[in-house]
Fold this sequence. Notes:
The chain has 404 residues and is mainly alpha-helical. The chain has a single domain (12-190, 198-392), classed as Growth Hormone, Chain: A. Helix content is 81%, strand content 0%. It is built from 18 helices and no strands. The longest helix has 32 residues, at 210-241. GO terms for molecular function: nitrate transmembrane transporter activity.
Amino acid sequence: MDRKSFLQAGHTPTLLAAFxxxxxxxxxxxxxxxxxxxxxxxxxxxxxQKGLMxxxxxxxxALLRIVMGVLVDHLKPKMAGAIGQxxxxxxxxxxxxxxxxxxxxxxxxxxxxxxxxxxFAVALPLASRWYPPEHQGTALGIAxxxxxxxxxxxxxxPGLAAAFGWVNVFGLALIPLSIVFVIYxxxxxxxxxxxxxxxxxxxxxxLKDKDAWWFMFFYSVTFGGFVGLASSLTIYFNTQYGLDPKxxxxxxxxxxxxxxxxxxxxxxxxDRIGGxxxxxxxxxxxxxxxxxVSFGMPEAWxxxxxxxxxxxxxxxxxxxxxxxxxxxFRKEIxxxxxxVGMAGGVGGFYLASSLGYSKQVTGSYQxxxxxxxxxxxxALIGLTxxxxxxxxxxxxxxxxxxxx
Length: 404
């Protein structure tokens, strides 16, 4: 990729603002996972309740992405993002000031944290509308690297909870959130080409296109795997290997950093070799590593190595999916970002809740991991079924300069 042409093509301050907003939003979106060991201990939660606690913000974030997609279309991305940030800051301030004293209150906070998960539907259109098709994979990859915020939560959450108490972590999170909110207001700019707002009928119209459903399924596996593991691994390492919350958080952060930092690389590789080819390899690897880890590695460091490999595959896959989406749905990118993002969150909710349920019912996490590995294989079969049609219709060389 010609770096100079990329820098000239778009609006770098907006790309940076989108990344920072996305990064911090994702940090608080999954914060209940890294704090899960301490919260569960104080509130006396079962394995299933722990699974549902970390899965609730993921599901709420998934469903709210549609709402955010509508707001982006009607108010433009910058304003939609500002509203989302105010809601999240307010919810954390209330949780910090009044405390969390019951399972129901944790789940309620989880619903509000879902607004942070919906940042995806704002940050991506905010950044991508500034860039031409040949730079979409890279631009969306950079903005999407905000996934790394999930690693910040795992890195700092458990240690801060041990030092100051887990409720005070909500208060401490307000500091970076407020700083980034100001940066966002100053630096982010809506692209001159903002498509006109769409009616609800137009949203539903996209769902009549079978390709929309394929993209939703593909992303539910790549992003669902990524965010489901990001939310669950602190509790997994603590339960499975007896690691203390802080060490379990460091192990989780390593996995999440791997998955989020390669997202831009995934977008860039897809720009070079085509999203279909790139995604095919990623599904094979993700299924393989999830299957291996399901058998329970003897040592925690061995499990860490396998999870890092799984997260690298899923993170690269996230970048590859979003290299393809704007090529197929350029005019409906706002709607599709919301729908595909929602499907990703639903996949994450399924994985996070099923791991807790699997442990509760069978005494092992194996079933949860194996079913998700099977979903990756199903996605691979689906991709193989559509690739010929995609390459000869909307991905045909005479229609686009991008590699499909």
